[in-house]
Amino acid sequence: MINWNKFIEFKNNTFKLIRNVFMGKDAPCDIDAPHAHRYVNKYGFTKYIESERPKLKGYIRQDDYIYLDKEKQELLSTLNKYKLLRINDNIDKIKSDQKRNKGFYEYRYEHEELNTYPVIEGTGKNQTVTLKQVWETEYDWTRDINHDGLTGYRRYCDYDYYSYNISKDEKGRTVLIGPPETNDIISVKDEYPYIAEDYYELVYGDREEFDIKEERAKINGTAKRR
User: Fold this and answer.
1) What is the DSSP pairing of strand 200-204 with strand 104-121?
2) Are 59 and 41 in contact (CB under 8 A)?
3) What is the pLDDT of residue 3?
4) How far is CA 193 from CA 69, 162, 177, in A?
């Protein structure tokens, strides 16, 4: 049998929560001591914010929280100012990104491109502009070893990761230290414990020559065994 009183209460609370999210009102919270709620965005990043707003700059408030003393309040304020996140709060996210971001080779290929250029003749009122089309050889990069027009050059592409620490200079100003020279920021998180949301980037290596037939045979599984 449906308990209509509880159903109506649940419906009203749900409506209030939705209204709070869209109208920017604070969510209910009975915690009296200084604290920060955990917020999560659609990309899986986690941060703690001293707020009761249901949604802040793409981050959704969660029920779990941490208590804050003065030192932690100052740290959170600094992290939010510089848009940094704690690595310890985002370990699973970082491991997932690193697992997905595998290095790979790109291969240089050439192709013919029909380009259009303006041709200006004459001067003043007698000046005319016509368009001239010219076939030109251009170069680009592909991850497909079987692509047509490979030139025998390749480059290795991999991801660099950036983490930071926070310190004070001789004038008491906040400064960021880092990033370290490593592609495994979890291994140095004690020394560099913070990241930005865009904490990695794809880096293109130097161009190098390679044997096209040998590379194709290796990747396509047709290389001869010795």
Assistant:
1) unpaired
2) yes
3) 54
4) 19, 10, 10
